[in-house]
Amino acid sequence: MKPRRFAIVISSIAIFALALCAGAHTIARASSPALDAETREMARRMFKQLVEINTTESVGSTTKAAEAMAAWFRGAGFDDTDVQILSPDSRHGNLVVRIHGTGARPPILFISHLDVIEARREDWSTDPFQFIEKDGYFYGRGTADVKDGDAILITDFIRLKKEGYRPDRDLILALTADEEGGTDNGVVWLLKNHRELIDADFVVNPDAGNFELDNGKKSLVGIQASEKLYQDFELKVTNKGGHSSLPTPDNAIYQLADGLARLQQFQFPFELNDVTRAYFARMADLTGGDTGADMKAIIQVPADSAAIDRLAKTPYYNARMHTTCVPTRLAGGHANNALPGSATANINCRILPGHTSDEIRETLVKVVNDSEISITPVISNGAGSSANPPAKLRPDVIGAVEKVTAEMWPNVPVVPVMDSGASDSSITRSAGYASYGLAGVFIDINDDRSHGRDERIPVTSFYEGVDFYYRLIKAFSSK
Ligand SMILES: [Zn+2]
């Protein structure tokens, strides 16, 4: 999963960035040298190969992708013992690769999923499983989510190996299955079955975080350090039904609708954590004006309730201050001329870190306030389904991101963010690892095609991503 999430705040950030550019930093410019031709070619070939191996849940195989990528590593001189394909079955392979360091510091784990969401040929302008470069973009399923991240990390691991780079800590790469769905989530499975292989000081995941382009201009480097917990609940009313010519007062659809109406009136309490507090503090300055003032007012203790109400009118901000639960599907009845025997609704909750789905269910029971409406959690086993504490904003991690960002893209602000969506980082966080989402690839705020048709990313953003991660890995693993 990798939807962009910053559209609402971008224009003001862009204005701020422009103001900065016009000021003291006029002489600063991107010091990023072009990638050497060999690295570019390797990254492109690998990216193409990954996109053209179908890794959907329906007919694809992450094992095939893992095998193809393992061949690259072996060809680059990695020992077989440091390139392992580990699988619960023949179709959900995970690839784990290690570069050995001096051991002066504990390892870093990079995770990125190999699977992609389904794509139908008839929905697309081109074959989704053909890698196409056109008009400055790479097209194909997974180009944005997240085979770009896979290709970038593999390229950089190989590049570092070829250089003979000796990090001061082991570097581990885990390319995994079933982030987008299915029952064999690779991160869950590796933690359960091979934890010693991926145990690390902290985790970095290119499948989250926001590298934003606004009208072609880089406007934000968002480092995702927290995400909400995903939980669906089924609300259900059952009824004996009957002939629709003889209506009774206890109609299942009305009864469910009344419960949903009570839910609509309810708002979960306002709450910030370290990440969202840092986010609003940073955004207050970047945004300015009345909205900036409201952001300053909500990070005070106690928070200004009028400012909370004003900011909550913007769904993006609201989602960062409150747990949200919203109906997303509705079903009921079995015939046009029969009283409904049942009515059900799916309620999709996005729960703030620190709260459990049991606790949210109890709240829903109180709010819906009808013992005849059953409320049952819908079980899922993947990204977002684990309660996960926000990652600490560690100075060594944030500092390295700021350093590389300043080298490559001076004046682009680095801002910690909490996602309202979900990634595999929720799983590593719940397992106790501080985890950070860093896309590395700039995408236009109005052109996020993850999970959609004609998925694409800008060609230049991809190669810059290769360079960004190369520098970042070195910043993380050398003094
Ligand atoms: Zn993803």
Poorly predicted runs of 5 or more residues: 4-32
Radius of gyration from the CA trace? Answer: 24 Å
* CATH third-level topology of the largest domain: Aminopeptidase
- How many extended strands? 19
Major β-sheet profile: 6 strands, mixed
User: Which ligands appear in the coordinates?
Assistant: zinc ion
Q: What is the CATH C level class of the largest domain, in words?
A: Alpha Beta
- Report how far apart the termini are: 33 Å
Number of helices: 15
Question: How would you explain this protein's 3D organization?
Answer:
Helix 2 (37-52) packs antiparallel against helix 4 (147-163), helix 8 runs antiparallel to helix 9 and helix 9 packs across helix 10. The chain folds into 2 domains: 7-227 and 386-477, Zn peptidases (Aminopeptidase, 3-Layer(aba) Sandwich), CATH 3.40.630; 229-378, Alpha-Beta Plaits. The strands form 5 sheets. The chain has a 6-stranded mixed β-sheet with strand order 1-2-6-3-7-17, with helices on both faces. The longest helix is centred in the last third of the chain and has 19 residues, at 459-477. Strand 4 and strand 5 (137-139) form a beta hairpin. The chain is globular, with a radius of gyration of 24 Å. 37% of the residues lie in helices and 21% in strands. By secondary structure, it is of the alpha/beta class. Zinc ion binds next to loops. Zinc ion binds at residues 1-2, 113, 145-146, 179, 207.
